[in-house]
Fold:
Amino acid sequence: YDDAFTVKRQRWGTFVSYTLEGEVLITSLNEEGCISATRWYLKAKREGFTEEATQYDGTVDHWPRVGVESP
Structure:
């Protein structure tokens, strides 16, 4: 696409975009979303991101579980 990246459908149904050098960029549930997000990402990477990057760390608890009490 746009001579800048490729998109491949994975065997489990997701779509992944790659740079022409093979670097993984975006994973999406549909091809159209993958293409759109990849174009946005590459443009932002080239021109600069308008927002400050944020990283979140944490854990997810899957409570309640049937037959298991919360810690």
User: Anything to note?
Assistant: Strands lie at 5-9, 15-19, 24-28. DSSP finds one helix and three strands in the chain. Helices lie at 31-47.
